[in-house]
Amino acid sequence: MGTGVEAMSAAGGSNALDPEASGRDPRPDATPEGLRGGRCTVCGYPMLYRPPLCPRCGGSSVERAKFGPAGTVWSSTVLRIRVADRKPPAVLAYVDFDEGPRALVHVHGAEDRPLMPGTRVCLAGRDDRGDPVVVPVAAGDPTEERAPL
């Protein structure tokens, strides 16, 4: 028999990391002040959730942490097809939040163009469906204030 989550599932145990089984919303907890998650007190690994053990080092102490609200675009794309009831186009980006993890977010204020890697963005909160939303930071703005929506 294996170890970890697979062994728990095979043995009929509960899977605390499965969002559907736990009833937890798997999306990051986003507010204009930043993303809420956890950080391992042993190795410092940042997470968008707070598991009982660190997935990197196995440490058993994961403390509450807040990341952002600013971050840097790692990659971005534009969905030009309808997905569920969302009207295209939709701009998405993977953002490396300052001192935190990478998260998939929706981008407002980019019209129908993907953001270039390295673009600075700021968390604006959640959209009407609960997904995290960022806005590009105004070019040349040293204070990194939010660009207008």
Task: Explain what this protein looks like in three dimensions.
The termini are far apart. This protein is mainly beta. It is globular, with a radius of gyration of 17 Å. Helix content is 7%, strand content 36%. Mean pLDDT is 81; it is low at 1-19 and 143-149. The chain has two helices and nine strands, in the order H-H-E-E-E-E-E-E-E-E-E.
Q: Could you provide a short overview of the structure?
A:
The protein has helices spanning 4-10, 19-22; strands at residues 29-31, 34-40, 46-47, 62-67, 70-79, 90-97, 102-107, 120-126, 132-136. It has 149 residues and is mainly beta.
- Overall radius of gyration: 17 Å
Distance between the termini: 53 Å
Shape verdict = globular
Hey, roughly how much beta strand do the residues contain? 35-45%
Assign the CATH architecture of the domain at 70-136.
Beta Barrel
Strands of the widest sheet, in order across it, are: 5-6-7-9-8
SSE string: HHEEEEEEEEE
Largest sheet: 5 strands, mixed, barrel
Unreliable stretches: 1-19, 143-149
| Top-tier CATH class of the domain at 70-136 | Mainly Beta
Oligomeric state of the chains?
single chain
- How many separate helices? 2
Q: What is the number of beta strands?
A: 9
Structural class label: mainly beta
Percentage of residues in helical conformation: under 10%
User: Would you tell me the overall average pLDDT?
Assistant: 81
As for the CATH topology of the domain at 70-136, it is: OB fold (Dihydrolipoamide Acetyltransferase, E2P)
